[in-house]
Amino acid sequence: YDRLTTHQTPGLTKQDLIRSQAWTGNQNRIVQMMKKLSSRERPVVAVVAGGSISLGHGVTPDSVRYAERLQTWMNDMFPLEDKNNK
């Protein structure tokens, strides 16, 4: 939460973030995904669905597009174990 408010949305309070979530649904799937990511044993497939906004139409450089940012974040935060260096 601190990273989100400090770098991307200055002035956003935790209460503001909570109010912005109309319905969070069953969090079982995200919990299972986080377990897979944390195990760092196998690649995880992530899909960004949408149209030109999700694709980042007109956004340059490519590294700031949502899909590329997600990929970079996942690789940085949850790199796969290098089994050859064990």
Description:
By secondary structure, the protein is mainly alpha-helical. The protein has helices at 2-7, 14-19, 28-39, 52-55, 66-77. It starts with a helix and ends in a 9-residue tail after the last helix. The mean pLDDT is 78.
Short structural description:
It contains five helices and no strands. The protein is an all-alpha fold and 86 residues long. The relative contact order is 0.10.
The separation of the N and C termini measures 34 Å
Rounded Rg: 16 Å
Q: Major sheet: size, sense and barrel closure?
A: none
Mean pLDDT: 78
Let me know the number of strands.
0
Shape descriptor reads extended
Question: What share of the residues lie within helices?
Answer: 40-55%
Secondary-structure blueprint:
Layout: H1 2-7, H2 14-19, H3 28-39, H4 52-55, H5 66-77
Keywords, please?
single chain; 86 residues; mainly alpha; extended
